[in-house]
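Researcher: We plan to redesign the surface later, but first we want a full-length starting point. Tokens attached.
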């Protein structure tokens, strides 16, 4: 399995030697550059070999011998353990016709669980959102769904559970009208959770059979008036990492409302599937009052809500989006955002949305423009830090803390110190993460920063502005260990910029110039200008700025936790004080998500 920018690929290994591995099929969707194919430097792993069994909870299936080998966890009795092996690829198929649609079926409180999705004979080369293929010149496929609806009208799934599914969950395809998925729990799904506009059935436009962005041949086949509301959608994309929680495309008057969408490797809600501004059947979609968080945990180039194509009458209203991550698995690609307004997106209303704690900015455009849309009363890039148990008291866990400019935060000489604990060493094409910094970015005059540079400690100081005046020092040793608290520090004494890791000198660079003060905010947890994958993933605690350069002995004492706080503190942030949420966030928390009026299926 290979992680790409916004997709993954799987292929069966047939042999290996000192030169590498050989697979039965190509690894990746060929013809789209390095974005969707295996290439040097991309994360990859092997799975399902008998020799890999080395941890409790792991298993191996020898299909030829019909033998399942399982390493039991501590306290677990294999004789009393039930193992479920899915056989079916689909559980329910509701299949009417254009002339004779199925009407008014109601499913309430049922569990739709356990389906299989065998590796296709040509491998699995994901393109985007559970669509896959071989090359850009060949036809493409969309994953099957466990519950398939075709020419269904007025059907309803309420308080049901869709779980442990090898491919995608529920799909509303051609001729589906006024159907609803309400108050359901959709989780542990290999592909997309819900698909409105599933094109695994029905006729597409002539000459476009199987094309990635093909519309319906008969415009009246476009699903219309369907709804996904008050659902919990989580842990989709468990196998197909580029899958999304809720997918909407080639449909009209769809309503996606008050869902709780979270814990996903890629995008939360995806709306539209045409990479230009040509008209399609995708119109008048309403995405409102959804709570979306902890998304983009494995891949890049997506967001809380992702859009494509010209969609007149579409409104994105009252959504709360936060904790949009930048994972070490993301190889290349652009930052991840609250809204990623991608190619051809046009004709939307963005109203009353709240976005904070995103690894990239709240909104990003690619071959779309802000002026192509209408904007009302949105609250973007709010500073809403979150707390967790820290080294001493609480620590900054997610988001960032922005401190307004003050003269005391601009000393001619300084020390920055912080305690940091991360779950994994930062990676990707840009492994830098800004722990604490002030005044824009490293090319901004007056910028100073303490940073992580992969597994090393680093610092920036800009005197004069521009890249030529950006002074950088990075320690030589890889000091960062996941799950461990580290004391990191940077000092500037007017002559030399130094960095320290766990009390020991790690690197130094001569400057011999005085710094001029800036007037930007001080930011803890990400780069001050919010650009790129700059946000720290982990815990930050006991941040201090001193108005002088501490001595090496003082730094060593601080790392050992003894001797008290030295004199000269210009600013200190311990994160022990109560967090006051902005009014916009408090209101959004009250208005989004399933709400108490729906008892979700369990």
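Model: Full-length starting sequence:
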């Amino acid at each position: 399995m290979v992680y790409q920018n916004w997709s993954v690929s799987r292929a069966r290994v047939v042999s290996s030697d000192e030169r590498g591995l050989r697979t039965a099929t190509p690894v990746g969707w060929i013809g789209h550059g390095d974005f969707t194919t295996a290439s040097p430097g991309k994360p990859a792993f092997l799975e399902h070999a008998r020799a890999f069994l080395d941890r409790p909870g792991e298993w191996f299936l020898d299909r030829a011998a019909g033998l399942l080998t399982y390493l039991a966890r501590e306290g677990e009795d294999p004789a009393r353990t039930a193992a479920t092996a899915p056989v079916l690829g689909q559980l329910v198929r509701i299949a009417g016709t254009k002339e004779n649609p199925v009407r008014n079926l109601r499913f309430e409180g049922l569990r739709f669980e356990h389906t299989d999705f065998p590796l296709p004979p040509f491998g699995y080369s994901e393109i985007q959102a559970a669509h896959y293929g071989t090359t850009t010149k060949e036809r493409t496929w969309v994953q099957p769904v466990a519950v398939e609806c075709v020419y269904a009208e007025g059907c309803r799934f309420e308080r049901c559970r869709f779980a442990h599914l090898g491919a995608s969950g529920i799909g509303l395809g051609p001729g589906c009208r006024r159907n609803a998925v309400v108050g359901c729990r959709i989780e542990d799904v290999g592909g997309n959770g819900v698909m409105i506009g599933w094109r695994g059935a029905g006729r597409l436009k002539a000459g476009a059979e199987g094309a990635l962005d093909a519309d319906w041949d008969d415009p009246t086949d476009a699903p219309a008036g369907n709804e996904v509301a008050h659902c919990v959608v989580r842990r989709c994309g468990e196998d197909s990492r580029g899958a999304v929680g809720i997918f909407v495309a080639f449909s009209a008057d769809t309503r996606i409302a008050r869902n709780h969408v979270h814990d996903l490797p890629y995008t939360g809600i995806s709306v539209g599937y045409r990479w230009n501004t040509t008209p399609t059947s995708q119109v008048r979609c309403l995405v409102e009052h959804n709570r979306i968080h902890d998304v983009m945990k494995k891949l890049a180039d997506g967001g809380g809500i992702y859009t494509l194509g010209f969609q007149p009458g579409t409104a994105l209203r009252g959504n709360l989006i936060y904790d949009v991550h930048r994972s070490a698995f993301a190889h290349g690609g652009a930052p991840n955002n609250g809204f990623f307004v991608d190619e051809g997106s046009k004709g939307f209303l963005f109203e009353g949305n709240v976005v904070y704690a995103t690894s990239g900015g709240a909104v990003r455009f690619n071959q779309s423009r802000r002026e192509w849309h209408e904007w009302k009363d949105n609250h973007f890039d709010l500073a809403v830090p979150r707390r967790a148990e820290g080294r001493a008291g609480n620590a900054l866990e997610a988001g960032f803390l922005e401190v307004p400019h003050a003269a005391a935060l601009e000393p001619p000489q300084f020390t920055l110190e912080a305690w940091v604990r991360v779950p994994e060493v930062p990676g990707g094409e840009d492994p830098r993460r800004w722990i604490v910094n002030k005044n824009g970015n490293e090319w901004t005059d007056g910028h100073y920063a303490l940073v992580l540079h992969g597994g090393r400690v680093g610092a920036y100081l800009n005197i004069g502005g521009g890249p030529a005046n950006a002074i950088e020092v990075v320690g030589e040793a890889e000091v960062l260990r996941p799950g461990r608290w580290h004391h990191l520090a940077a000092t500037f004494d007017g002559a030399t910029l130094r960095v320290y890791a766990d009390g020991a000198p790690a690197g130094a660079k001569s400057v011999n110039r005085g710094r001029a003060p800036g007037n930007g905010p001080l930011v803890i947890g990400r780069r001050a200008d919010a650009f790129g994958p700059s946000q720290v993933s982990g815990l930050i605690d006991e941040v201090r700025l001193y108005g002088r350069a501490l001595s090496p002995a003082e730094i060593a004492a601080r790392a050992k936790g003894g001797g008290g706080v030295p004199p000269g503190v210009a600013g200190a942030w311990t994160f022990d004080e109560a967090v006051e949420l902005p009014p916009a966030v408090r209101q959004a928390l009250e208005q989004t998500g399933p709400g108490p009026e729906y008892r979700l299926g369990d």
